[in-house]
Amino acid sequence: MTSQTQTALVTGANRGIGKEICRQLLQQGWRVVACTRNQQAGAVAIDELREDTGADAQQLILRRLDVTSATDAASLSRWLHDCGFALQALINNAGVFLESAAAGNDDPLQVEITTVLQTFNSNSLGPLRMIQALVGNMPSGGRIVNVSSGMGQLSDMGDNYLAYRMSKTALNALTVIMARRLQEQHISVNACCPGWVQTDLGGADAERTVAQGADTIVWLAAAKEALATGGFYRDRKRIDW
After folding, report:
1. Is residue 1 part of a domain?
2. Contact partners, residue 169, CB within 8 Å, separation at least 6
3. Closest to 95 measured CA to CA, from 28, 223, 193
4. CA-based, 20 to 30 A from 113: which of 30, 85, 150, 167?
5. Residue 130 phi, psi dihedral angles, 5° rounding
6. CATH number assigned to the domain comprising residue 23
7. pLDDT tens for residues 66-87?
8. Domain span at residue 125?
9. Number of CB atoms found within 10 A of residue 64's CB
10. 153 contact partners, CB below 8 Å, separation of at least 6
């Protein structure tokens, strides 16, 4: 570990795409701050990642974080400052999918408002809290990647799962707004759709592995070449909003 090591912070890092993002960044030599709401599940994931990648306690660091908590976000910012970590990449991966076809609340006429509010609090306001709290820890050239979904595309909108779809559309709007706001600070902000991935959320029948799902996210965060800001990507290509 050298003073030139780049630092990335990943939310929702204990499983699925988040865990794989951490793995790929570690393999590229990054220091990774892996943030999880469940400390116990996070500890298990960290042990597995350290065993798989050979990362030590300085290269892979576990922090407890609930993205719905402004207090947690502020505490994380203070901790980064106290550690002297400049944050080259912030990956807003944590999110929820609370609607269920089996329960009937995939119907926009039936979904509970509380479900919509809880989904927005995690999927849309969570990334907003993180950006507001942590952008002060990011130097010029930093990158923010918001893990979105094609289900939030206005150009290809469906008629079910209202809470999740709306939350991801709002996340896309946040991406564009912050990209413009942070452009003068030379901090890029992009969104990425990982596709239908074999995770607890996507299920075993999904068409993509977690490695494929994480690839574009890691590319947006870690590519050596300069990338545009304010875009929506899948498979390393821009897609329609």
Report:
1. no
2. 152, 153, 154, 157
3. 193
4. 150
5. -65, -45
6. 3.40.50.720
7. 999 999 999 999 999 999 999 9
8. 7-236
9. 14
10. 169, 172, 193, 232, 239, 240, 241
In a domain, 218, yes or no: yes
pLDDT per position as a tens digit, 173-199: 999 999 999 999 999 999 999 987 877
Taking 60 as the threshold, does the pLDDT of residue 1 lie above it? no
Token pair, residue 191, equals 């969104």
136 assigned to some structural domain: yes
Tokens at residue 59, please?
């290269």
Dihedral pair phi/psi, residue 194, rounded to 5°: -75, -10
As beta bridge partners, residue 191 has 146, 232
How many CA atoms, within 13 angstroms, populate the side-chain half-sphere of residue 161?
19
Q: Structural domain tally of the chain? A: 1
Measure CA 87 to chain center.
14
Tokens of 109: 């006429």
Q: Is residue 2 part of a domain?
A: no
